[in-house]
Amino acid sequence: MAANAPLLELRDAVPSFEESGLMPAPYNLRIMPGECAVIDCRDFERAAMFADLCTGMIPLTQGSIRFMGLDWSTLYDRQLNALRGRIGRISRHGSWLSLFGTHLNIMLPHLYHTTDPFDHVVRRATELGHTFGFPGLPVTAPDRLSGADLARAACVRAFMGRPDLLILEDISDMLPEETVLPFFETMTAARDRGCGVLWFVRSSAAWHEYRKAVNIHMRLLDEGLFSLRVV
Amino acid sequence: MTDTSPPPPEQQASGMLAQMGPPEDSKDTGRVATLIGRFAPWLAAIGRLTRHQVRFTLLLIGAGWGTLRESLRPNSWRRPVIYEFRATLRQVIGGGFLSIVVTATLAGLMVVSQAAYWLGYAGMAQMTGSILVSVLVREIAPILVGIILMGRSGMLSLTEIGMMVLGGEVRGLQARGIDPFLALVMPRTFAFTVGGFTLGMIFAVVSLLMGFVVAHASGAITSSVWTFFFNVLVAMTTWDYLIIPLKFVLVGFFVGLGACISGLTVSSNDTMATIMPRGFARGIMLVLVVNILFMLDF
């Protein structure tokens, strides 16, 4: 990846309507390393689909999407998976496997994509758990955790392993009040080392306190993605 | 408002053929096109049905080859994959052990004691070993082990993976760069393979042993247990040493693979009520196909 190259770039990307349900309009977005883009979207499902689009999971009928200089459509499965392993993601739905305990769910992407020693991964996850208000790593099944604890666990998982891009769906309604500040701090720390952030929000209340640090503000509607002025 | 609906297939076909053919033959071409157009929906329906029927078989062949190929890459056996392999192996062997012992005991009581009694009655007691090997160990054991594997563990895998697909968890795995084939299908299939072999061997030993105990108690067999097992081993040919373990291995492999693939290919219209019967029917079919294929050649 070149020094001044965008981290994530959607260039007239038109998603396949059959695969996504997203309007086949050209989407344009450019996030540089360390930038934070906030996208207003009231519909959770549309936000999740757009997040999938940015991670190369939805075929395009036109245009291109590049992440770290690589076009998703030109990569093979193993390359796609390796590249997706560089993205930390918070999803609202379908992100917890009931087969494993929450601790394994948190560490699963990191254990899959890296060869870091297990103890090191556990230590890092526990540290992040403390940051987000856990006394340690939760080992119970995810479906037995409360919404607030799942939101904490989602944050721990997203920030694990120094991701290059964070794609954060809106969990502000589940995230406990005392976790909001650590969330902003961890996000800022990640941005300081060059991680880009794509943050979906439903209302301005979710990012109001962070607005001064936001670089791009857009709105995702049925008709496409529209730029808004950052206040 | 203009009507933009496509023309019927007859008109489409005749239009296309009329464009392709020379102008002087347009009348004949039109007639042929009308004929083709009339049969086209029937042909399409037959094609659709054929493709639908062989879809699972083709999927199974492709996934089987993919599983073997991926398993040879050291890079495929990452930590979550190994974890999943161990967890499934524990479930397959631990969950099926008691059922296998009970079934093997019942099968042993029936087959060994009956064989010993009737062969002794017919004055062919020296054939007891070979009859037991060919009937119990080579033919009955793989079928029963396959059915128990499928019932105790295959249906569980099918339901788990099917529910994960319907709940969006598999898509969530993909979004995090975790290949569901590597993380779920490959380790589970190999766990079933190892489990099939292990449970099959347990079945063979327990059924023969229990059969011996009963036959010995009833006086149908008077030799020692060592002589009995020695006779069984002597009755086995070189091929049996290859075919019997291979049957257990293949039954385990295909039951596991079939369950995982059936789970992974559920559609959004599917529910438990449609997933389970389909998976059960496919599992039974696979167990029988593996056994029948071996029966044809050996």
Automatic annotation (TrEMBL), chain A:
Stored InterPro entries: P-loop_NTPase
GO molecular function terms listed in the Swiss-Prot or TrEMBL record: ATP binding
Keywords (A to Z) from UniProt: ATP-binding, Nucleotide-binding
Record-given protein name: ABC transporter ATP-binding protein
Organism encoding this protein: Komagataeibacter nataicola
Listed SUPFAM superfamilies: P-loop containing nucleoside triphosphate hydrolases (SSF52540)
TrEMBL record, chain B:
Pfam families named in the record: MlaE
Annotated Gene Ontology cellular component terms: ATP-binding cassette (ABC) transporter complex
Region (Disordered): 1-28
Top-level taxon of origin: Bacteria
Transmembrane segments: 92-112, 118-137, 144-166, 190-213, 225-242, 248-267, 279-296
Keywords: Membrane, Transmembrane, Transmembrane helix
Pro residues biased stretches: 1-10
A molecular-function term among this protein's GO annotations: phospholipid transporter activity
Protein name: ABC transporter permease
The species this protein was found in: Komagataeibacter nataicola
